[in-house]
Write a structure and sequence with these properties.
- The protein is α/β, with parallel strands linked by helices and 224 residues long.
- Helices cover 28% and strands 28% of the residues.
- It has seven helices and 13 strands.
- The strands form two sheets. A seven-stranded mixed beta sheet has the order 1-2-3-4-5-6-7.
- A hairpin with a 3-residue loop joins strand 3 and strand 4.
- Helix 6 packs antiparallel against helix 7.
- It starts with a strand and ends with a helix.
Amino acid sequence: MPRQILKGLYQVGGAGLSDDRDCMVYAIDLGVLVLVDCGAGPSWPRIKDELLSAGLRPESIHTLVHTHCHVDHIGAAHRVRAESGCRVVAHKGDREAIETGDPLRTAANWYELELPGCPVDHVVEGQGERLAFPGGELELLHTPGHTPGSIVAFAGVEGQKVLFGQDIHGPFHPDFGSDLARWRESMAALLAREPDVLCEGHFGVFRPSSRARSFIEGQLKAHE
């Protein structure tokens, strides 16, 4: 069953829920359905079932936000876009890897998965921007380090500042274009924002703000 985090906010994919190869996939109702990442690809039918169980229609996905270009986050993108007509959003730093399905930069070779390229409909430039929806907005912030085009998303849900910080833990590898110095700067910027809830990409959901802070600080310490 999907895991409700707050009203209108669900985890609908990830290890133990859809496929162990998937990142944690989040769905948020902002007056329209927004998906944060979409898993590695093979389990997309299961993720659709989780959406339906949460009362959300997969064909009504309005926007798919890619937090970065790795296959465990973008592998189903071509199917999501074809089935729903959604807008695919990503930062320009990872756009080429997403659109070409580059096996090194997307880590598709690590997962031994074929990755069809997928067009990026909305390219985030510079440090970030805000996406407006009928029921709220997402603030996208550029957080390079894991990959050149890594981003996080902030949303206000039930008075809580929710941070979708997928792979803020890394890992880091030359094939990804990783940069530890830039990652440390990115993590400092996230700590300064003091999120109430951290929806991470593989380690789970951290709340209240003290646990979110401790997780980020712990990652910084681990990569000193």
